[in-house]
Amino acid sequence: MIDAARKDVFRNDLTVHRPRQILLRALLAAALALPAASAFAQSPIAPKISLQGDQKRPLTPEEQERQKRLDAEYKAATSKIPDQKRSDPWADVRPAPSASAAKKKQQ
């Protein structure tokens, strides 16, 4: 009778821990699979999938003219910008160059 009680206790113990073991194994598998999935997504052999539909359609002649006009306006606007003097944020902190450094710079 004691042997029957022991078997019953061990059987109940296994049935209680079995779902917990399955859950832990599933979590471990997911934790190991996530980094591998992101690494696969960055690999060059992965298929290129785009959800936004990056297919470029050919531009109509009107759109091509508009694009050329915009490019010309952009170049004209950027050519009007004067050359900027390089700023030295450490000018006040750095000591003035010595006479020997100035001579070396001239050579």
Task: Explain what the structure shows.
The structure is a single chain. The protein has 107 residues and is mainly α. The chain has a domain at 1-43. It has 3 helices and no strands. The longest helix is centred in the first third of the chain and has 41 residues, at 2-42. It is flat. The relative contact order is 0.03.
Quick structural overview:
It is built from three helices and no strands.
Count the helices. How many?
Answer: 3
Structure class:
mainly alpha
- Poorly predicted regions are none
Q: Report strand %.
A: under 5%
Write the H/E string, N to C.
Answer: HHH
Major β-sheet profile: none
Oligomeric description of these chains: single chain
Fraction of residues in H or I helices: 55-70%
Average pLDDT number: 77
From the N-terminal CA to the C-terminal CA, the straight-line distance is 106 Å
Compute the CA-based radius of gyration: 36 Å
Shape: flat
Task: Give the strand tally.
Answer: 0
Keywords for this structure?
107 residues; mainly alpha
Topology record:
Blueprint: H1 2-42, H2 61-79, H3 99-106
